[in-house]
Every structure is written in C-alpha cells, then in structure tokens.
Design a protein that fits this description.
The protein has 246 residues and is mainly β. It has one domain: monomeric porin ompg (Porin), CATH 2.40.160.40. The protein is built from no helices and 18 strands. The strands form three sheets. The chain has a twelve-stranded antiparallel beta barrel. A two-stranded antiparallel ribbon has the order 1-2. β16 and β17 form a beta hairpin. The two termini are 27 Å apart. The relative contact order is 0.18. The N terminus is likely disordered. GO terms for molecular function: transferase activity. This is Lipid A phosphoethanolamine transferase.
Length: 246
Amino acid sequence: MKLTLALVFCTIFSAQSQDTIKYSNPLAEVRFNFFKNSVILFNEYLDTDAGSFNTTNFRLLYPIGKKTFLLRFDVPLISTNTPSVNKTGLGDLAVAASYIPYVKNKMGMAVRAKITSNSASDLNFGTGKWVFTPTFILGNYLGNHKKYLWFSAVEQQLSFAGDQNRNDINVSVFENTLLYFFGKNWFGIDTAIRYNYTIDGFQNTAFVEFGRKFSSDSMFYIHPSLGYGGAKSYNYGFELGVLILF
C-alpha cells in the first residue's frame, strides 16, 4: 500500500500560540506543505495471506522555483517474512514532481507526476516494471473555522517498460481524506478505491491516523489500516512515521 497516494506527504504548523494554530491554505497544512525542505522516515508493516511485508522508507521533499514546485525522492528498504522467504533489500526507487497551479482562500489544487523505477534488489521487493503515475489533487476546507480539511485525488498507475515476464501495472485510484485539527494534533480518516485492470479486481484500502507536533520542526504520526475488496493486496497494516523540517 502506498499511503496517501494522491497527497504530498509533509507537515508544518504555523503557531499563533502554543495551543492555537493559524492556517493559510489547503495545500499548506498537516501533511500537505509545499514550502519546506523535509525528511520523512516511516515504517509500514503489512500482513498478507502469504506472509508479512515490511517497508522502511526514507523520503526527501525539496521545493524549487518560487516554491510552487516540489521534488520528492523515495528510497524504500523492504523485508519479507514468508514460510519460504525471509529477505531484506532495496525496493523500487521513485522520484516525483508536484505543482500547485491554483490556491485561493479555502480551496486549492495540485498535480503530480511520479516515476517508479525497476530498481529493486530482489524480485520480491518490486514490481519488475517502470511505472508512470499522474495524479490530480483537490483540497478544500469544510466550514468557516478551518478545522476540517478534505482532500480528494484521482490517479492512474501505468507501467511502460521492464521485465516482460512480470504483470503489467494498470491501476486506477480514487482517494478521499478528511483531516481534523485540534491544538498541536490532527486526526484523519481515509479510504481509497483501487481497481486493478490487470487482475480485474478491487484492491481498496482504508486507514485512520493520529499525528502530533512535538517540536518546532518535528512531528510524528501513527496509523492502522486495512485492505478490502475482492482482490485485496493485504489484510491489515500499521504505519509509524516521523517528519523533520530543515
């Protein structure tokens, strides 16, 4: 599972006081800030019918230009634990570029293009394909107090090269996230409808999340998740992450 697929994964608060947070626009909130250099470290554990799958990911976010563009780099370390295979190695490296064409008052939109390389150190740690993923993101505050933020995203994952013996990647995703801000904390719920055309089945996911700022330049979050649908890729999962601004 690629968490918050349609969303730029970064957090920042602008504090009026210790307990009061001032917000500016939907694309500059918890998990969605384009204007800070950021490092994210997170670990995601997934339980599947064939065993466990663990990803430790290093993610770098780097704004460029007039800070309406953002570059993202992902370096995943994968571990599998099955009755026949217990391995650890490098997963598929990925790079993405995001752009905010519109932000006004309570509403904003962004687009993203991501390339995932066929670079895993082991067959079990990657798709065996080069994958292009375009994404469109729309964010909007609900109500006048800017405590509820709704995000919706549509994306398409398409493979265009790689191992001919591996399945092609062709997946459509429609994801919705609702965040609630209170003090230095946030709580979120998310559901993503994923249809995999290659296997002709749904691989949907859902999660809840709690996060908290614990210093001026660092935050953490936890979230449990589950997979559902006739062709779900995993049963349940748990992710823990830390974000550091620099």
